[in-house]
Amino acid sequence: MPAPRPSKTATLTAKDALVPWQNPELTGINRLRGRAYGYGYASLGDALAAAKPLALSLDGTWKFKVLDRPEDTPADFPSPTLKDAGWADITVPGCFTMQGFGKPIYTNVKLPWASRYPEVPDANPTGLYRTRFTVPKDWAGKRLILRFGSIESVGSVWVNGVAVGLSKDSRLPSEFDVTAVAKPGVNVLAVQVIQWSDCTFIEDQDEWWQAGIAREVELLAYPQVHIEDHFAKAGYDHVSGAGRLDLTVRVHATPAKGWKIRARLFDRRGKPALRKPLEAEVNWCEAKDPHRAEEHIAKLGADLPKVAAWSHESPNLYTLVVSLVDPAGKETDHARSRIGFRSVVIKDRSLLLNGRRVFIRGANRHENHDRTGKVVDADTTLLDIQVLKRFNFNAVRTSHYPPHPRWFDLCDEHGILCIDETNLEAHHHYHDIANDPRYALAFLDRGSRMVLRDRNHPSIIIWSLGNETGYGPNHDAMAAWMRHADPTRIMHYEGAIAVAGWDKGHAGSDLVCPMYPPPKDLVNWATTTKDWRPLIMCEYAHAMGNSCGGLADYWQAFENTPGMQGGFIWELLDHGIRKRLGSDMPVGADATATPSGRTPDIGWPGDTEYWAYGGDFGEATHDTNFVCDGLVWPDRTPHTPMWEAKTLFQPLAVRLLDAATCAVQVRSKYDFISTAHLAGTWQLTVDGREVADGKLAKLDLAPGAHAQFQVPCRIPSVLPGQEVHVTLRWHDTRDLPLTGRNHEVAWAQFALPAVAAAPAAPAVATRRNRLAIDQGRSTIAITGDGVAVEIERSSGRLLRWSVGGTDLLASGPATSIWRAPTDNDGIRLTDMHRNPLKNPNNPWEAKPVRRWMIAHLDEAQTTLEKLSARVVGDSAEVVARTRTWGADKAKAVIAEHRLRIAPDGSLAWSHRFDTHKDLPDLPRLGVHLTLPLGFEQLEWLGLGPHETYNDRRACGMVGRFASTVLDQYAPHIMPQEHGHHLDTRWLSLRRADGVGLLVSAAPMLEFNASRFDQMALSKAWHTTDVVADDCVHLHLDAAHRGLGTASCGPDTFDQYRVRTGQRYQLAYRLVPLVAGQDANAAHRAL
Predict the structure, then answer these.
(1) Contact present, 773 and 870 (Cβ < 8 Å)
(2) DSSP code of residue 634
(3) Does some domain include residue 845?
């Protein structure tokens, strides 16, 4: 390539009059063609070990200045003699918007400013970067290539004052030949980074807007004649087990006749996989043929009679080393790739990997770090894969752009199936840009360079044309190029089926890949269509806040409907940015950490740091907390839906065949490997306490096979009313790098028939003191021996319950119909208002919280309509009738609260709720009580240990669990309802001295114990707004609304809602507990 000429101005310009950053037809200047990401090596040994690549890292501390607009860039900015000592320091790689120069902005669909594409605002933050680097003396005579891993969004580059080139596309590398301008010794590199450009309109993804040099900067050295690119197609015949390697190698420069390519293949142990290296001559041409001067190709191939195939369960990798041999027979250059033999096809409406139908148990993944933004370090990248593997995920869609190359290296190594997605989203201009010929080259450029960079990775089984950019000829042109360049993979693009219909868009997508329809719509499609394509959801189960209700319903549909194969949950990660109270800037990567010692590491009461979302950095235009919609917190601590997914995704399906003999059937859901590596155990529990355990017979099931066996446990004799459960667990005995030895991968639990012993003889009745009732003017007092109960006449609420001089309740129970809205109930900062509904049938408008607000359920008041108290035998009975309503007193919940007070001080409550048919479905229906501060020790017999809701309960097992009330808190970035528990037989709350109370259900109830008031949570916008109360809030529910996924998807399914026009009942007893008294024994004694 001829040496670039010095620029007369500091801004690189294109041939036409448009400035480069507002010209979509310009995709780059002097940028080298795309190729496989990698390095050159001086020797075979170095290449095989991936050691000592011929590369110089330019990462580190650079000099930096930010301008208001690119036109303000001084003409002498690139000059080597410019004095920049007084400039600020900045870290590269890094987003300058995360380092105190500007601020991050969050929008989902709309752009941060009003503009007509491709024009951008005059106010356009522009970063000026400068650094010095030293070219080693022994690199003299080599070809030097300057590589930027990514620049957001337009980067212009100078070396020693000479204009080198211009880069577009914020998620792919840009390489420039600097051989003619970089010299041995010290050199000056200058980079101008412009935040807003014509690229902005097609990088309109649902994430933070940042700017800067977000990935590594490196200087690469090669011989003048060297391996420039290689593509290894590693095919697999699942019938014979044979592999086929087809290798295409491109050589740079014009070698003379006699240059060869030599290829060696090594297995995982480092042993040669070929009998001898492959060799082929590089095609060459005379210098007089200029049209072919840079196309020097060698093609090699080999059949391997038996290979270890790559899959997500057995990620078998081979190391390919490609060497360039000069006419004298000397190997002068080496390149390497790790490849895997596998096949990806669609047949009979099924996506087949290596001939097997594979369910996609996936998640969408953005790249984000709460301290560094788009810069995600290697440890965090590996942590993401570790989290996925530990929770039984097998796939990732790289939403919505190609990730850092190390992501695919790690997915190749550890076994994650990937959709590699083109960096294209024009959400704000959804129907326009895909049809605009000015952007046609940008579409093709981004798709082709992604394929060229990543096509050697076996973990990538699907290419994606991008996200939410409508559908048009620009897509079809890109898809045609990608299909021709790489026929080994299939194509995905949701827009192709969203715009024209699920049975259309075949040119753009080999999958029917919708977003967010409910299971019934999926089943209806799959059972009636004639389309040949499988249905795999590219987004579903929107994981915003306390979410993923109905995930089990989706998987019941996936696993029982031909033509459906799973999908990708939206999304893996909350994108909160760490921020400190009193500051308007992000907490940078070098700031002093203030960990709480808990997980997640911030968000707890008293913390001064919190995770920020849209609007928290002063943005006028933003989309609030919609950026916080992940399965894990920003520090990768899992939300409860991860445990739900792990249970639903586990590789064994277990069914109880006969409870009396404890006979079970186990079916393997593995796709490729046997179950020989699993070791099983059983535990027998009575009322949640283990009474026996043992080992299960070893399973060695082939994929899809099943076996029956009897669990070797003996059902014990129990007391009347006790429950017996058997829990089966399987652990992976392999010492895998990310999960370790004995990691639990599957479990199942079954209730067994209890053989009750003869009941004990009834205790001899002892004379008990009668209770007395004092009908006071403002209260009704019920007293007895050590017992004191007070009922407020005006409300019917209990004001005091004291036994033995200990106050056990501060107030309650009172009718409760409100919960702190979840993100799925409605987005707090946009949906929580009372504006009348224009279209009640529009689910985006008629969010549950808005219906509740219009009905004033958040301001619900309760009035007493009737109150009576009387002595019944040696007990006392209080009956209160109340009316609870919001906007309309006639549309109310009528409750009858019946209390029986025993002489020993225990309280037997029964509540009957009649709900008016014209009320909206309710958030919850039950009662609210408060306990004095100090009743912090929580224990319960029911589903646990995780929180459970009626549409997210698969992860809950019956057991006896201990916690604290504060540990029930889930610090969601937007505070909301959390900590609910289903199927509770009893719960106890105690002080540190062991004194407490028992809630004994008849037969079961739902509960929530918290230090936080639901209305206070409703009004909080951040975790730092949440203050623990000086009491314990206890909610006992007859019914509680499911969670659903309505923040972006279907509302809570009908069967999980609290429907009105019906009667609900709730019954339980409150019993005082003394220190050392077993709560379960007290429960059984009732």
Answers:
(1) yes
(2) T
(3) yes
Q: Among positive and negative, which fits the CA dihedral 286, 287, 292, 294?
A: positive
- Mean pLDDT of the region 364-376: 98
Q: Of 610, 635, 644, 637, whose CA–CA distance to 625 is shortest? A: 610
User: Phi/psi of residue 856, each to 5°?
Assistant: 60, 35
Q: How confident is the model at residue 1073 (pLDDT cuts 50, 70, 90)?
A: very high
**pLDDT of the residue at 15:** 41
Report the percent of the chain where pLDDT is more than 70: 95
> Rg (Cα) of the chain, in Å, rounded?
33
Any residues with CB less than 8 A from the CB of 521 and at least 6 apart, and which? none
- Strand 60-67, strand 185-194: pairing: unpaired
CA 815/CA 821 separation, integer angstroms: 18
pLDDT score, position 285: 60
Q: Which helix (DSSP H) or strand (DSSP E) does residue 156 occupy?
A: strand 154-159
**Tokens 């090594």 found at:** 266
Tokens, residue 79? 């000059």
Question: With 70 as the cut, is the pLDDT of residue 293 above it?
Answer: no
Mean pLDDT for 255-262 is 89
The whole-number pLDDT of residue 1048 equals: 95
Alpha carbons 853 and 831: distance in angstroms, whole number? 9
Q: How far apart are CA 822 and CA 646, in angstroms?
A: 22
Mean pLDDT, residues 1066-1082 taken together: 98
Amino acid at 991: R
Q: Are residues 254 and 387 in the same domain?
A: no
For the record, the structure tokens of 437 come out as: 């010929």
Residues 164, 299 share a domain: no
In a domain, residue 221? The reply is: no
- Structural domain boundaries enclosing 175: 20-30+60-215
Reported as a pLDDT band with limits 50, 70 and 90, residue 1065 is very high
Q: Which two tokens stand for residue 857?
A: 């359920």
| Same domain membership, residue 699 and residue 573 | no
CA distance linking residue 550 with residue 824, whole number of Å: 12
Element (H or E) spanning 773, and its range? Answer: strand 772-775
Question: Do 889 and 1011 reside in the same domain of the chain?
Answer: yes
- Of 94, 128, 147, nearest in space to 11 by CA: 128
Under 8 Å between Cβ of 325 and 287: no
Task: Tell me the CA distances in angstroms from 399 to 465, 573, 629, one per residue in order.
Answer: 11, 11, 13
- Residue 370 region by backbone torsions, left for phi larger than 0, else alpha for psi between -120 and 50, else beta: alpha
Above 70 in pLDDT, residue 287? no
Structure tokens at 523: 């089943």
Catalytic residues: 468, 539
Q: Is 277 within 8 Å of 331 (Cβ atoms)?
A: no
Question: Contact 458/412 with Cβ under 8 angstroms?
Answer: yes
Same domain flag for 446 and 565: yes
- CA pair distance 778, 793, nearest whole angstrom: 5
Residues in the chain: 1086
Residue 997 tokens, joined: 């109370």
Domain match, 904 and 929 both: yes
CATH number at residue 660: 2.60.40.10
| 3-state secondary structure (DSSP) of residue 841 | coil
Give the HSE-up count for residue 863: Cα atoms under 13 Å, Cβ half-sphere: 6
Query: Are 662 and 596 part of one and the same domain?
Result: no
**Per residue in 513-528, pLDDT tens?**
999 999 999 999 999 9
Angle subtended by helix axes 519-528 and 551-560, to nearest 10: 10
For residue range 235-253, list pLDDT tens digits in order.
Answer: 999 999 999 999 999 999 8
Tokens, residue 474: 């620009």
Q: Please check whether residue 211 is in contact with residue 136, taking contact to mean a CB–CB distance below 8 angstroms.
A: no
pLDDT of residue 815: 98
Contact 197, 19 (CB under 8 A): no
What span, in angstroms and rounded, lies between the C-alpha atoms of 32 and 165? 10
Domain identity same for 579 and 689:
no
Last residue in a domain, options 187, 215, 243: 215
